[in-house]
Amino acid sequence: MDNAMENLSETATQYWDKYSDLALGNVITFAPKLIGALFILWLGTAIAGRLQRRILNHTEKSPRMDTTLGNFLASIIKYAIIFAAFLGAASLVGIEIAAIFTVFAAMTLAIGLALQGTMGNVAAGILLMVFRPYRVGDYVEADGVEGHVDEINVFTSTLRTLDNVKLILSNGGAWRSTIKNYSSLGVRRLDMVFGIDYGDDMDKAIKIIKDTSAKHADVMTKPAAPWAKVENLGESSVDIQLRVWCKPEHYWDTKFDLTKSIKEAFDKNGITIPYPHQVEIGG
């Protein structure tokens, strides 16, 4: 029994000496390649990020450069450099590039199904660049959300809402939806409704609304001067609709200012804004 254990121990020692030296030799040989591959990945990522920032800075400073196109090109260049670094790192550790593309070609269908959404977003991003339904800086509504466009890259569009919330919208979702661009035409119509009491003078109220609107600095006279007409006879009020034109960036301030100034003008001229009354009938 003791002899058997000694033989087993000697055999195990021989195998350990043989294969540990082999493993150690492989590690020593492979380690520099692995370190080099990691360095290539780090360097490629760093260069990609740095080049993207330089392109974005140049785009912002140059009035001749389209901001939307600059952002998109910067995004494409970034991912292209990272992909090239990945191929270089793979080649350094002994993975044949031709083999990688062969595997991709053999698995085209599977990869296409797995990345259907991602590839669709890339294609949609290209279409967004070609047809330009919106640009960086525009205020848009797409795929059920709205906000100012801060960035358009290969895969997504970034919107910023009025209350400063960042929204990440897939390019595919934006392209497949109805896109409302509130900025592209340069002017926007603001519609407001004011209710007055049935006993008030409608013509007087209309004149007050139009005159007050015309005095606002951001209300435009083209494509049309302020317009006001009786829109509806409600249950407790005569509803007058106001239509004015302003620049898209002035839309909300103009709306809030006119709400306040027209209410103050009504008060000064005896025009009443009715409100619901509750009548209690005693038993």
Describe the structure.
It is built from eight helices and eight strands; from the N terminus they run αααααββββαββαββα. It has 283 residues and is α+β, with helices and mostly antiparallel strands. The protein has three domains: 12-106, Helix Hairpins, CATH 1.10.287; 133-181, SH3 type barrels, CATH 2.30.30; 188-268, Alpha-Beta Plaits. The strands form two sheets. It has a five-stranded antiparallel sheet. The chain has a three-stranded antiparallel sheet with strand order 6-8-7, covered by helices on one side. β7 (227-233) and β8 (238-246) form a beta hairpin. The protein starts with a helix and ends in a 15-residue tail after the last helix.
Throw out a few tags for this protein:
Alpha-Beta Plaits, Helix Hairpins, alpha+beta, 3-stranded antiparallel sheet, 283 residues, single chain, SH3 type barrels, 5-stranded antiparallel sheet
Summarize the structure in short.
With about 280 residues, the chain is an alpha+beta fold. It is built from eight helices and eight strands, in the order αααααββββαββαββα. It has a five-stranded antiparallel β-sheet with strand order 4-3-2-1-5. Strands 6-8-7 form a three-stranded antiparallel β-sheet, covered by helices on one side.
Topology (elements, then pairings):
Blueprint: H1 2-61, H2 67-92, H3 97-106, H4 108-114, H5 116-131, E1 139-142, E2 145-152, E3 156-160, E4 166-170, H6 171-176, E5 180-181, E6 188-196, H7 202-214, E7 227-233, E8 238-246, H8 251-268
Antiparallel strand pairs: 1-2, 1-5, 2-3, 3-4, 6-8, 7-8
